[in-house]
Write a structure and sequence with these properties.
By secondary structure, the chain is an all-beta fold. Helices cover about 0% and strands about 55% of the residues. Strand 7 and strand 8 form a beta hairpin.
Length: about 120
C-alpha cells in the first residue's frame, strides 16, 4: 500500500505558472510509475502526464504537451508537475496516481490515488 499527498494547488490567472507536488509514503520501495490526472465535477478524471520510475519515460496529454513538465525525485519519493502558460481549461482537481506498471493514460491502471488539489485558472 502506498499513500499519496498532493500539494501546491491554488488560484492563478491565465498565462501564469504553478507547480504541484505529490509525496508518496508507505511501500515506496516498490518501483512505481507516477501520473497526474485532472478531474472536475461531473467529468471523469483524464490523464495529464505520467513518468516512469527511472524518469526516462514520460507522456503527456495533447492538451498540456509543451506547457507542463512532469518530474520526480526518488530520494524523497516526490513527483512534480510544473505547469506554465496556464489556460482556463486547465482548471480542475489534480490527482496524483501510482502504478506498479508502465506509464499509461488509463485510470484503471493506477490502483493508488491521492485526495487531489484544486487548481483554478481565471481569465
Amino acid at each position: 500500500q502506498v499513500s499519496l499527498q498532493e500539494s501546491g494547488g491554488g488560484l492563478v490567472q491565465a498565462g501564469d505558472s504553478l507547480s504541484l507536488a505529490c509525496a508518496a509514503s508507505g511501500r515506496t520501495y516498490t518501483r512505481y510509475t507516477m501520473a497526474w490526472f485532472r478531474g472536475s465535477p461531473g467529468k471523469e478524471r483524464t490523464f495529464v502526464a505520467g513518468i516512469s520510475w527511472s524518469g526516462g519515460n514520460s507522456a503527456y496529454s495533447d492538451s498540456v504537451r509543451g506547457r507542463f513538465t512532469i518530474s520526480r525525485n526518488n530520494t524523497i519519493n516526490t513527483v512534480y508537475l510544473q505547469m506554465t502558460s496556464l489556460e482556463t481549461e486547465d482548471t480542475g482537481v489534480y490527482y496524483c496516481a501510482a502504478s506498479p506498471g508502465v506509464v499509461s493514460s488509463l485510470r484503471a491502471r493506477y490502483p493508488y490515488w491521492g485526495q487531489g488539489t484544486q487548481v483554478t485558472v481565471t481569465s
